Amino acid sequence: MIAVTEAFSIDRLLADWPSTAPDTIGTWRKREKAWLNVGADLTTTPSWLPLMGYVEVRNALQHGLGRLTAQQLERRNQTLSRVAASGVDLNGDTVTLQADDVDRCYQTCRRFVHDADSAAFHAIQLALTSTTARHGVEQA
After folding, report:
1. β partners of residue 94
2. Global confidence as pTM
């Protein structure tokens, strides 16, 4: 689910803003900045922090065999805050998943896709309005 959500975030940026350089969207932090550069602050959406929590959980599962990785432990407070926002429990530094966590992850990813789609739409509308206003001023 996280990988699909990540792919949507990338694909939406590249589809609507084709001048976005691929090397500027290789991490969630870079995508956050890229979205901000096109006028969409996804960090203000209700789904952002829980999604980042599930990204941390996914990374612990994939790269740490269920335990927080050394990289996550280097930024422990941020990692713990994000995981807490997802609602997933930790037993020490070990992720303990329940069936409800999977459903919440699905709901969070679904909401994020909606939030990102809506943010992209509004950023495009704002850019069009701004362009129209500039051209109107230039012609006057």
Report:
1. 67, 91
2. 0.89
* Residue 24 contacts residue 17 (beta carbons within 8 Å): no
Which helix H or strand E contains 20, and what residues bound it?
Answer: none
DSSP calls for 42-81: GGGSTTHHHHHHHHHHHHHHHHHTTB--HHHHHTHHHHHH
Contacts of residue 71, Cβ cutoff 8 Å, sequence gap at least 6:
none
In this predicted model, what pLDDT tens digit does every residue of 54-109 receive, in sequence order? 999 999 999 999 999 999 999 999 999 999 999 999 999 999 999 999 999 999 99
* Biggest CA-to-CA distance, the chain: 66
User: DSSP for 82-116?
Assistant: HHHHHT-EEETTEEE--HHHHHHHHHHHHHHHHHH
DSSP output for 3-16: HHHHHHHHHHHHHH
Q: CA–CA distance from 112 to each of 9, 126, 133 (Å)? A: 9, 21, 31
Rama region for 65: left / alpha / beta (φ>0; ψ in -120 to 50; rest) = left
* Token pair listed for 52: 């980042």
